[in-house]
Amino acid sequence: MMRQFMGNSYLFGSNAPFIEELYESYLDNPASVPEQWRDYFDALQNMPGAVTRDVAHAPVIASFAQMAKQNKLATSAVGIADKRQIGVLQMINAYRFLGNRWAQIDPLKRQERPQIAELEPSFYGFTEADLSQQFNTGSFHFPNGQQATLREILESARETYCGTVATEYMYLSDIGQKRWIQSKLEPNRSRPNFSVEQRKRILERMTAAETLEKYLHTRYVGQKRFSLEGGESAIVAMDTIINHAGTAGVQEIVIGMAHRGRLNVLVNTLGKQPAMLFSEFEGKHAADLSAGDVKYHMGFSSDVSTPGGPVHLTLAFNPSHLEIVNPVVEGSVYARQQRRSEAEKLCALPVLIHGDAAVAGQGVNQEMLNFSQTRGFGTGGTIHIVINNQIGFTTSDPRDLRSSIYCTDVFKMVEAPIFHVNGDDPEAVALVCQIAVEFRQTFKKDVVVDIICYRKLGHNEQDEPMVTQPLMYKKVNAHPGSRKLYADRLVGLGVCSPDEPDQMITEYRAALDRGELLYNPVLSGYTRKFAQDWSPFLKKEYTDECDTSVPQAELRRLAQRLTDVPSSITLHSRVAKIIEDRKAMGEGKLPLDWGMGENLAYASLVAEGFGVRLSGQDAGRGTFFHRHAVLHDQNREVWDEGIYVPAQHIQENQAPFTVIDSVLSENAVLAFEYGFATAEPNHLVVWEGQFGDFANGAQVVIDQFISSGEAKWGRLSGITMLLPHGYEGQGPEHSSARLERYMQLCAENNWQVCVPSTPSQIFHLLRRQMVRKLRKPLIVMTPKSLLRHKDAVSTLDELSDGRFRTVIGEVDPLDPKAVTRVVLCSGKIYYELVAERRAKGIQNTAIVRIEQLYPFPNEAFAEELGKYPNAQEVVWCQEEPRNQGAWYWIVSRQHLARSLGKSHHLYLVSRPASASPAVGYYAKHQVQQKAVIEGAFGELNQDVAPSR
Question: Which cofactor(s) does the record list (predicted)?
């Protein structure tokens, strides 16, 4: 019998999902599968080396694959009863996999149901006569045991998977997660059983959402607000998530969303007073911001009451770049989680609200999902809400929106379950949101709720969608509205009296007329346990002055801790030499190199109570083999063992030190770090580009958040960007960090742009970021070749007695009166200029380093220039082409000219203007570099850039 069964035609590779499901049913209950399958699975369990019943079922699939390779899968007959039972289980499985394609999730009912043969009983050989026959239901949840008629099974499968909820989850590799989802959907057939009070609450939320939009539409005609009309169920979703999360122990929720429905969420979810919103519409809102932002970009915070206790809500500020706020939210949540114990981390929850076209179209989501389960970035799962208008931008042809079936298909890369739900069924929306909260809290994974709705108006209120979407908007204009449909349903069920829905509208409008909220859950005066105090950093005037020195005895202690490697760690020979050298540096026997200066800065900060977080694609070791903040045992046999991080062992009760080699992403990772920095003022948050120009991939984060966040939103951030920069002949992509781009964004003391040239300078610069009572972003052009340059060194005295010097003057013993030319420069080129001058014995030229380009140190520069009374030629020398680097910014802002006298003339020595950052041919690079160095000391072209 077994031999005959093994030759069954059902055992082909195309049936692997069915076999897997059948085996899962067998593991749950052996009696739920046909006898021959049960005998086979029993035999498989008893095979030598077989897995136990509690372990994954992959060996079953593997065994069938092996039989297929050996051509052992022949065709023979199986009993008719067994074939029919197998067909029932296959059909149930098909509905779990494919039922979403037949689901009634489109409020506009635009698409015809596709032909899917696997969802028809006839595909499995059943006829009308079979509908009354009893079959085993396998793992499908039935209230009266595991026997039901084919009709009952078919109706239950269709109600569960083809109603107003369409669930995609069978791709999950964890059977426990699949069974969990089935247990939430199948017993109630994806239908909630809400009380009268709960249903009225849902109607009240729908009423609030719709009435606010209509009120704004009539009161502020033609003004942009990116209306939520047609997607009002999103407010029900947020209400459900917040209240259910509060019951589940969540204490903080950070929300990220773009424009659509944002004003509605601000008022009806976060409790922003309508009077405040009206003031913004009327242009009366006077914020203490130099720039401010439009109302539908603004964030908000509040504390609201839930059945489980107070929950702090934060809606992140967001620019027009839609999905870019998502990793910012993740970083903010991660910072909030880090304040808590490991057991309490799930108390902070990220909720991201997406648009259908943007979630599929913008790559930042893939980058974010890629790091969602990694060390240093995972937040224990995110709840994603898609307000799916089925249109994207107004002019989009549906054929051009994406290449996948659903806009949410990107989430399958992290095996997030996806609940598609009809926005016209707000009860179904509430149900799946409850399930989403429970799934996240149970499995610490992402989960998606895709609300299929429509957009009543155009992309904005000045748009006319009928011009490009006549077919769709004929249906939209004929739609009575989601709130009306639900109100009529409740009246029909006797839940509400006939006049109750209209009375809700009247009461809500009356409250809006008063500038108030009819229902406001906001708690006043509530003090959160884990709130951060930003008051020491608010409204601070910019200053460079700060004592960043560290006593020499403490420096020696820190150096000893950084170089005291456990004997169990066998270092690579090159790394061992570096650690030995650093030990000597700490003892004053060798001068400090860049890596030691940087590591001492981190160690001193964590010893003083400031956390340090450093990330980048090669942050632990350092792209240029200089940092070695993470040490690896060369003899380790397990990946996650034999790793030692010295800065984590400075002392007891030190602040945290985290160093993470990030995924190969700039955009999402930098956004994450910015989000972390905006939530944690007492952490030095550092992102390092593998090469400086890699930041090009994160330009939107730099432009829209880091450089302008304070001016637009009042959001402070001390994020630090380390960008390796310098012309060493490595070609266009590995030479320039595009300094000119950062200089162009400089204004209003929005950040600092520095080019430190010694280990002591990076030591003091990094310490200044935390020790000074000021939080401004810091952009650092860091070196490559200088990391091991014999002259780019410092002493312990420079760390213990010094500070960050915005300008470093001449170091050679020149006669100031003999100096007729002053060469100004920044970064690596300084050492080449000094070498050239010394080689040629030039005595009339002083070289001055500008270590901080912005805010420009006018006083320090003027003082240095004043030391040379006979100098008439002032030269700005840069490696970058003329149209790049700092030159144009320095000239256009007249920073140098302010300190120049009438006898001074300003000149430029640089590479010629170029469309590319650097040449790709090394020989040509050498010619250009030689010309720049020699040009700084040679005859100057009077037409280059005279100061007057």
Answer: thiamine diphosphate
Nearest CA to 879 out of 913, 838, 929, 917 is that of 929
CB atoms within 10 A of CB 869: 11
CATH topology of domain 810-935: Rossmann fold (3.40.50)
Nearest to 559 by CA among 634, 653, 650, 643: 650
Buried b (16+ CB within 10 A) or exposed e, 673-702: bbbbbbbbbebbbbbbbbbbbbbbbbebbb
| pLDDT(158) > 70 | yes
Least confident of 282-286, 471-475, 699-703: 282-286
Tokens encoding 227:
């209306």
Q: How confident is the model at residue 47 (pLDDT cuts 50, 70, 90)?
A: low
Q: Are 778 and 752 in contact (CB under 8 A)?
A: yes
Please give the share of the chain, as a percent, with pLDDT higher than 70.
91
336 CB burial (10 A radius; 0-12, 13-18, 19+) = buried
Q: Which two tokens stand for residue 77?
A: 């007959």
Average pLDDT over residues 341-352: 93
Show the tokens assigned to 724: 């390796």
Average pLDDT, the chain: 90
Q: Are 878 and 914 in contact (CB under 8 A)?
A: no
Closest CA relative to residue 549, chosen from 339, 924, 804, 887: 804
Q: Which helix (H) or strand (E) holds 219?
A: helix 196-219
Superfamily of domain 196-513: Thiamin diphosphate (ThDP)-binding fold, Pyr/PP domains (3.40.50.970)
Asked which of 2-16, 172-186, 338-352 is least confident by mean pLDDT, the reply is 2-16
From the list 626, 619, 765, the residue with the least C-alpha distance to 689 is 619
**What does residue 257 show for φ and ψ, rounded to 5 degrees?**
-160, 160
CA–CA gap between residue 281 and residue 260 (Å, rounded)? 16
CATH (one of 3.40.50.11270, 3.40.190.10, 3.40.50.10800, 3.40.50.12470) for 552-800: 3.40.50.12470
Strands 300-304 vs 311-315: parallel, antiparallel or unpaired: antiparallel
Q: Where are the alpha helices (DSSP H) in 482-621?
A: 482-493, 500-513, 552-563, 573-586, 594-607
Note whether 682 and 726 are within 8 A (CB).
no
The neighbouring-strand residues paired with 876 are: 824, 908
State the pLDDT at residue 79: 56
Q: What DSSP string runs through 855-909?
A: S--HHHHHHHHTT-TT--EEEEEEEEETTSTTHHHHHHTTTTGGG--TT-EEEEE
Task: Flag whether the pTM goes above 0.85.
Answer: yes
Per-residue pLDDT, averaged over 208-216, amounts to: 93
Distance CA 948, CA 946 (A): 6
Look at residue 458 in the predicted model and tell me its pLDDT.
75
CB-based contact 762:601 (threshold 8 Å): yes
Helices (H), 46-164: 58-69, 80-98, 150-161
DSSP state of 174: -
Contacts of 530 (CB under 8 A, 6+ apart): 251, 252, 336, 339, 340
Residue type, 586: G
pLDDT score of 636: 85
Cβ atoms of 381 and 445 closer than 8 Å:
yes
Q: For residue 40, which of 12, 18, 64 has the smallest C-alpha distance?
A: 64
Among residues 304, 389, 385, 371, the alpha carbon closest in space to that of 110 is found at 389
Q: How confident is the model at residue 223 (pLDDT cuts 50, 70, 90)?
A: confident
Residues 6+ apart with CB under 8 A from 139: 21, 24, 25, 28, 29, 32, 179, 182
Distance of CA 943 to the CA centre of its chain: 49
Closest CA to 537 of 718, 414, 702, 409: 718
Backbone phi and psi for residue 601, each to the nearest 5 degrees, phi listed first: -60, -45
Question: What topology does CATH give the domain 2-162?
Answer: Helix Hairpins (1.10.287)
